[in-house]
Task: inverse folding
């Protein structure tokens, strides 16, 4: 006898295999609808952060808008001017580039 025959005899009707198949299907669905899109989004955010330069407009995780004054790659921080003469030092991981609406610029 092989393992499959033993398992089918122990269970009676083979519902163990259908249960395992259902679990595998759920894992696949979670991967394609939740995990994969989230990892793609994180990669896009990382690329955008790496492409930031002095003079770019940004928003912090706390909701503060400003313009990059300087970037220190060694410490992973940047200085952001939030008002004329007011600079703050923030972690590079807490800053997102601002995507300005072109329609708003035309008005």
Result:
């Amino acid at each position: 006898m092989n393992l499959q025959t033993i398992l089918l005899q122990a269970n009676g009707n083979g519902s163990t295999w259908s249960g395992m198949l259902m679990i595998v299907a759920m894992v696949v669905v979670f991967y394609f609808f939740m995990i994969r899109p989230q990892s793609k989004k994180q990669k896009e955010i990382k690329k955008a952060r790496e492409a930031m330069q002095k003079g770019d407009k940004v928003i912090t995780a706390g909701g503060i808008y400003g313009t990059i004054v300087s970037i220190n790659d060694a410490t992973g921080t940047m200085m952001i001017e939030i008002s004329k003469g007011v600079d703050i030092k923030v972690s590079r991981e807490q800053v997102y580039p601002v995507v300005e609406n072109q329609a708003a610029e035309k008005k």
The beta strands are 57-60, 65-72, 77-83, 86-91, 95-97. The longest helix spans residues 15-51. The first strand starts at residue 57 and ends at 60. The chain has two domains: 3-47, 53-99.
